[in-house]
């Protein structure tokens, strides 16, 4: 059986095609990412603007052509923050259905956090100690406190990189006053996280895909650490290397970032606010370890679908 998963994010529409084997294991046979910037010009006004709407539609048609080429048996499409919070999000869903036949499910932030946990848990052993999982999107950032067995706390904050860029509107390079303003904004907006971390103390941050992938790849190219971290499902960050990349990014212009090895072009604009956010969370909660999971929402959706299918089979 071939399954297609589409993660309709605020910045990127990601497609993953997997072949599911008899034993329930899966093998990824194709992947595609299309930068869409669905939140451009309207994300903080709860609207998908005209041009991003058209870009999103075009991306879905491109994904549909690929899905057809691979003769996929079932397609699962999930929309997150930009569509969830936009007044015309449902119009986009209807238009996609009319023009491609793909049905999109709009998921809550809470459900998104749960699915991210399922994905991360497939990539690495979370162990018995509680960790803080962080997934930075364009529209929202999810935080989950969990161990390998269960979730203790989760929350989706409307603090994605695209939203933060609109709030701060930083210079190129970002200046000290803007960094200070961003940190103050995060401190105030993330009160729930600080309280949760007091209730459930954590020492390790697990970054889920996205910006964390880029940071790991930049470290790989700059410091020539072992093999490329993205060929595996997990990676342990050297915090000195992370600090060096942080300094490099906050002192860089957009032109310089476009030339940086390991930094995907689609992340060039948002990586600075993302890395400031990561470092702020690390310092504020006094975390001393940082890990990467190359799995996130897509893999979580796949895991959850296969689990539900198995359960209904057993009850059937």
Describe this structure in words.
It is built from twelve helices and eleven strands. The protein has 316 residues and is α/β, with parallel strands linked by helices. The protein has two domains: 2-107, 2-Layer Sandwich (Nucleotidyltransferase, domain 5), CATH 3.30.420; 110-297, Exopolyphosphatase. Domain 2 (Nucleotidyltransferase, domain 5), CATH 3.30.420.150. The strands form two sheets. It has a six-stranded mixed sheet, with helices on both faces. A five-stranded mixed sheet has the order 3-2-1-4-5, with helices on both faces.
Keywords:
Nucleotidyltransferase, domain 5, about 325 residues, alpha/beta, about 45% helix, 2 domains
**Can you list the strand order of the major beta sheet?**
8-7-6-9-11-10
Number of strands: 11
CATH class of the largest domain: Alpha Beta
Q: What's the order of the H and E elements? A: EEEHEHHEHEEEHHHEHEHHHEH
- What overall form do the CA principal axes indicate? globular
Number of helical segments with 4 or more residues? 12
Q: Report helical residue fraction.
A: 40-55%
Instruction: Tell me the CATH superfamily of the largest domain.
Output: Exopolyphosphatase. Domain 2
In the CATH classification, which architecture of the largest domain applies? 2-Layer Sandwich
Distance between the termini: 20 Å
Domain module tally: 2
Strand content: 15-25%
Annotated CATH topology of the largest domain: Nucleotidyltransferase, domain 5
Low-confidence stretches: none
Radius of gyration: 19 Å
Structural class: alpha/beta
- Average pLDDT metric: 94
> Sheet with the most strands?
6 strands, mixed
